[in-house]
């Protein structure tokens, strides 16, 4: 029977669990970007956008909750942004797993460090920019 | 593995060749860093080269720096960002071309103290042998890391050359451990500021898509090819190229106003 170890129940080496999580998250991100990329090019491939100057940001593409909502609604640009968002939360997920691994090993200093890093990453994502 | 990351090439390429606004280019740079770091970080972790504890400790500093850099960015005019970028490029090339000490690190640091309390000392495998090592001068190394984080958040680069400087030259970690740990930390550093760039609308899917598609296979291919290839002539060509690009970025900053 094939084993499917969950990153939440790490094996002896924490590095292995974290490495596995990174690979899986990255693979999901790549698939989402590829699929939504095709949809995006199909829908908006004909339009030429001037990136030479800053455009006012589209509200639907800047807030994580809004990106997810519009992506579910099938908006191609939001779907693509969802792939980007997945990529962006990969380090956060990695840090969270590290936190769990360190908690299991009772290395509280590193649990605190990981928690602080998680806090900074979440702040960056949802905090006021 | 040339020691120079993708950001230093990607961002000038987008701004100079494709005439993309520097801020969009920085957003795209951050995304590509996360992709590359997640991809190669996994491989290095499995090989046991990354020092997880040192990486975590320093990560906190680079993440704080990156957040500060990202908040600072809107207050700096694009032309000044361009000049800073060019200057950082030149320093990066200098850092990655200087000769490194190849001699084994001395192990005369007394046992005990913070290094052992936090388990920072470790060993790594090289050619089948266990090589023990102990970090030194964490305070100075950490300060450089904080600075590397600020540069990363400000310019959308990984600032890998500065991270390696802190770990390899200041903290005296083995070079392989320094580069792989730097790569491992890169994702968290970039993600800290990327969230803010996303909120500002500087991360545009129309730019992220081609960047993403190009960077990922390129990085995977690069790590395979460069592991075998003779990198020396490649590094020289690359260094000259980056210096030319840096000069152009600085010039754009001075001339464009």
Overview of the structural elements:
The complex is a heterodimer of chains A (129) and B (257). With 129 residues, chain A is mainly α. Chain A has one domain (15-42, 61-126). Chain A has helices at 14-44, 64-72, 76-104, 108-126. In chain A, helix 3 (76-104) packs antiparallel against helix 4 (108-126). In chain A, 42% of the residues are buried. The model of chain A is unreliable at 1-12 (pLDDT under 50). With 257 residues, chain B is mainly alpha-helical. Chain B contains 10 helices and 2 strands. In chain B, strands 1-2 form a two-stranded antiparallel ribbon. The N and C termini of chain B lie far apart (36 Å). The chains are: A mainly alpha (129), B mainly alpha (257).
Please describe the biggest sheet of chain A, giving its number of strands, its sense, and whether it closes into a barrel. none
Q: How much is the average pLDDT of chain A?
A: 72
* Model regions low in confidence, pLDDT < 50 over at least 5 residues of chain A: 1-12
Task: Please give the share of residues in helix of chain A.
Answer: 55-70%
Q: Can you tell me the overall shape of chain A?
A: elongated
Range of strand content of chain B: under 5%
Mean pLDDT of chain B: 75
């Amino acid at each position: 029977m094939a084993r499917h170890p969950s990153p939440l129940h790490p094996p002896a080496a924490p590095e292995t669990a974290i490495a596995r999580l990174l690979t899986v998250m990255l693979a999901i991100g790549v698939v989402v970007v590829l699929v939504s990329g095709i949809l995006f090019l199909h829908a908006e491939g004909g339009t030429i956008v001037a990136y030479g100057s800053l455009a006012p940001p589209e509200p639907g593409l800047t807030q994580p909750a809004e990106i997810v909502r519009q992506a579910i609604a099938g908006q191609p640009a939001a779907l693509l942004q969802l792939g980007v968002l997945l990529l962006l939360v990969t380090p956060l997920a990695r840090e969270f797993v590290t936190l769990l691994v360190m908690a299991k090993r009772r290395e509280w200093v590193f649990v605190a460090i990981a928690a602080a890093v998680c806090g900074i990453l979440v702040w960056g994502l949802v905090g006021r920019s | 593995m040339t020691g120079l990351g993708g950001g230093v090439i990607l961002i000038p390429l987008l701004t100079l060749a494709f005439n993309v606004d520097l801020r969009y280019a920085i957003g795209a740079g951050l995304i590509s860093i996360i992709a590359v770091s997640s991809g190669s970080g996994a491989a290095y972790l499995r090989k046991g080269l990354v020092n997880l504890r040192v990486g975590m400790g320093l990560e906190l500093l680079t993440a704080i720096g990156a957040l500060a850099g990202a908040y600072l960015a809107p207050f700096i005019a694009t032309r000044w960002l361009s000049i800073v970028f060019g200057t950082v490029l030149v320093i990066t090339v200098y850092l990655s071309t200087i000769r490194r000490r190849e001699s084994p690190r001395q192990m005369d640091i007394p046992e005990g103290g913070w290094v052992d309390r936090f388990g920072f000392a470790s060993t790594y495998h090289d050619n089948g042998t266990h090589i023990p090592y102990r970090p030194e001068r964490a305070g100075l190394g950490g300060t450089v890391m904080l600075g590397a984080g600020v540069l990363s958040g400000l310019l959308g680069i990984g600032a890998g050359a500065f991270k390696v400087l802190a770990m390899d030259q200041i903290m005296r970690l083995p070079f392989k451990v320094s580069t792989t740990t730097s790569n491992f930390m890169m994702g968290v550093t970039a993600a800290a500021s990327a969230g803010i760039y996303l909120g500002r609308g500087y991360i545009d899917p129309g730019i992220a898509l081609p960047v993403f598609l190009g960077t990922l296979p390129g990085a995977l291919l690069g790590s395979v090819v460069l592991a075998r290839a003779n990198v020396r002539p490649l590094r020289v060509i690359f260094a000259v190229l980056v210096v030319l690009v840096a000069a152009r970025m600085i010039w754009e900053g001075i001339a464009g106003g």
